[in-house]
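Entry type: protein chain
Record version: 2
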Amino acid sequence: MENRSYKIKMNGNGIQTNGIHGNGIHTNGINGNAVHHVSVKASIHPAKLKARRQRWNVKPSEMAKNTLNPIRAIVDGMKLTPNPDKPMIALSIGDPTVFGNMPTDDKVLQAMKDAIDSQKYNGYAPSVGYYKSREAVANFYSEPGAPLEANDVILTSGCSQAIELAINVLCNPGDNILVPCPGFSLYKTLAVSMGIKVKLYNLLPEKSWEVDLQHLESLIDDRTACMILTNPSNPCGSVYSKEHLQSLLSIASRYCIPILADEIYGDMVFPGCTFHSLAPLSSDVPILSCGGLAKRWLVPGWRMGWILIHDRNDVFGSEIREGLVKLSQRILGACTVVQGALESILNDTPQEFYQSTINFIKTNAEICFSELSTVPGLNPVMPSGAMYLMVGIEMEHFPEFQNDVEFTERLVTEQSVFCLPATAFEYPNFFRVVVTVPEKMMVEACERIREFCARHYRPRSQDSNELDQ
């Protein structure tokens, strides 16, 4: 409300009008014909009170400013000018489809064609996904120790959205989450943008990237809302034993911390190694398991993921489930055509396809590990699954470079081979190799890396002699 003064002409009617009329005018006892000043309390529309902006001043939100993908931040700042005399070999992108040598199975394609031809999936689905599609996922992943029903499944736009929903439903600003180091950069990207603190727990390369259990436990406090476990691992290619997973579950149980299990590479393990899904190993820890079609079925662009809700002791109760439903309603769900094809994709893809894929990845990983193991100054760690191999750099033998970013940058400049510096995973002095490229390209890349290292490697004794001189 705002006070204003007006001149009002009054007709003489012999009425004294002390007080407030329904129109909000104070007349203070006015008689006769006259012009008087009166006070008016007028209701002014709020829009009329706002000062007109003199210039444009549009700024990004705090969430937008706090969103940063470490990989993009590092790669975008690198000087990546390949050697024009050598064709580029990119071993940096976690997309198995890039080179065209790893197509999905014909049954998968046919399922999509049938879904399109049916014209049943051109409209909106429920935000959590079609019931029949969720039931298909539940049946596919259900185990005696961890049974699933359709209502335990939320379909999402890729595994990335599944991870986002899981973090969102478990955490508030000011909480913290436990994240593997080295680990998938998206965890931090999502958490920090939402005001959630990230605590990095160490993985041990000398133990095939097992979790440093003591370090993990030391990070837990009363604001720890979630523990993220990635198995099989990006970027490490590690696959945890049943015993190691049980040790991790024991810590979660002791401190009553729910787990986000990123199992997008589930079952993508090399022959002789076994993938153990986390949920069947747990008797009491509630788990949100995130997965999708992207990697195992070689269709990352189809953007089909899911959350599997494992909560046998009803720790999550109805609120977490309702929270996931509400969060899924922020967008209108995953691609409906892929949902229509999902049951056939899960049930009809032949085992030979999965086996062929993993055999190819293992062969490439063995080539890369074997070749780089004999390169002075490099220490590759043999993976057991997924699509990656991590290589340690003995930086003291490469004095020209301050860190892994400079090392990999020059590798591009001189040899046209691009490996992702592990600083992008907050684990310096390593680089990650994607082992899904054609075999000949893998061999060629390793030869070029060997040539690069031979040119820049300096033995310790030589370093000492140079210092003495």
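Comment: Residues 5-36, 463-469 have pLDDT under 50 and may be disordered.
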